[in-house]
Design goal:
2 copies of one chain form a homodimer. By secondary structure, chain A is an alpha/beta fold. Helix content of chain A is about 50%, strand content about 15%. Chain A has an 8-stranded mixed sheet, covered by helices on one side. In chain A, strand 1, helix 1 and strand 2 form a beta-alpha-beta unit. The longest helix of chain A has 30 residues. Chain A is elongated and about 70 Å long. The relative contact order of chain A is 0.08. The mean pLDDT of chain A is about 95. At the A-B interface, helix 5, helix 6, helix 7, helix 8 and helix 9 of A face helix 5, helix 6, helix 7, helix 8 and helix 9 of B.
């Protein structure tokens, strides 16, 4: 395939996706970003031209990948004429239909992963969910996504939205609990470092076991003594106390259901 | 050192700790467990005798490691005469002082990790927190723990209790969110497997970055549109909706503090 790409938006997802496509031989012709320095940074890595001006976007590109905050999509896309080119968004929460008014050929590429600028990511094992407005466009996306990942799956908009919510629980909320755990340790001058092996093992366990089998701790043992002690210890921080109580109850209820 | 050990309790922690000590050349003389089959299983691995009868516990052992549910500690220990032997508990939540009435020499060994029967664990990088009733006993525990782990730290009871609460957030609650994420996917017939690379990367990120730097997703971007959409999608499951709202608010508040 000699398809070439333009990225509209140069945030963390675009940054890693453009690099991954480029490393597989796809030409990244152009990077647009409202803040020029970010467009420039990525363009230098992928050998592309860059711009922060919407009407400088090259009209002859094969595939336009929109990686913008959901709230910016409409404002940006309404200023570009995509003619019969293929327009792709990468949002978990936006249905494919939001692209309908901007292009004749459109689709979605949604890689289920958390992207930070400073972390290299290996796309080969990242599940990529695709959707398109026609079987022909779906075939193109399957090919493109298939060059960077071994796990390309078709998901319609409703499924994708649920994938996004699941990812918020399994990643963003999980990371927030790492944060809370670290904040608690700070009060006794203990370094976050001591939690790292526990955090890693917790994630490694569910690579093999189902989470319900992997669960340990006071809530799953119905150890009310410990739970009461912990709650009284957290009494000074109502936010943490409330979370502790609510989630312990949730663990308790779901394991009760499972066990009997 | 030619110290030998008796384990009182053969749960998941005892199972892995006894194996680790045994693999470093310590003799595990005896395993007691109320359910004999569990004592037998571990005893066969560590070349020990086993019993489910408290008055058969060997009085001549150097170190007794109590790995019981907190609520069972008093009932079991009050039936054993430890004389001047060293009595150790492994509980995050029990202060060292609970052992005072059962022995003259006592202490705590608390490995900060989640243990499941079916998962091998590498003790060498697990932080082990120790405490003892005398400098002499602390030195013994430092030696014992130091043979299986490179990270032996002294922590008093108050610190250990906080370590335990932190571990509940960073492990048990995290695992419950893996569970919830999987339950959500089930409603659309999507396999839990698709979350595995995301779960692993989320844990790997905080091995290098602080959680506050690693955070991504709608809450940290203050993306109210997506949050509202997700909440309405979760409206049928009040439990998940409430958790989503509470934690998004918590992420929002803590990042507001940090950024401004």
């Amino acid at each position: 395939m000699s398809l070439n790409f333009c990225f509209i938006g140069a945030g963390n997802l675009a940054f890693h996706l453009a690099k991954a496509l480029n490393s597989k031989g796809f030409q990244i012709k152009q990077i647009y970003n409202r803040t020029e320095s970010r467009a420039k940074e990525l363009a230098e890595i992928t050998g592309s031209v860059y711009t922060s001006t919407l009407n400088e976007i090259d009209k002859s590109t094969d595939i336009y990948i929109v990686a913008l905050k959901d709230s910016a999509i409409d404002e940006v896309l309404s200023q570009i004429d995509f003619s019969d080119k293929l327009l792709i968004h990468c949002s978990g929460s936006q249905p494919i239909s939001v692209l309908n008014k901007y292009a004749k050929n459109f689709g979605v590429i949604y890689p289920l992963q958390t992207f930070s600028r400073s972390r290299e990511v290996d796309f080969s094992n990242i599940p990529i969910f695709i959707e398109a407005n026609s079987p022909e466009n779906l075939a193109i996306l399957k090919n493109v996504a298939g060059t960077i990942s071994e796990k390309v799956l078709v998901a319609e908009s409703e499924q994708r939205q649920l994938l996004h919510i699941s990812a918020v629980f399994a990643c963003n909320f999980v990371n927030h609990f790492y944060f809370i755990a670290g904040e608690l340790l700070k009060t006794k001058n203990i370094s976050f470092d001591v939690l790292k092996p526990l955090i890693l093992e917790t994630a490694l366990k569910v690579q093999e076991l189902q989470p319900i089998e992997a669960q340990t701790g006071p809530a799953v043992r119905f150890d009310k003594n410990i739970i009461e002690k912990h709650l009284s210890k957290l009494a000074d921080t109502e936010e943490y106390r409330q979370l502790y109580e609510l989630i312990s109850k949730s663990i308790f209820e779901h394991h009760k259901k499972t066990n009997g």
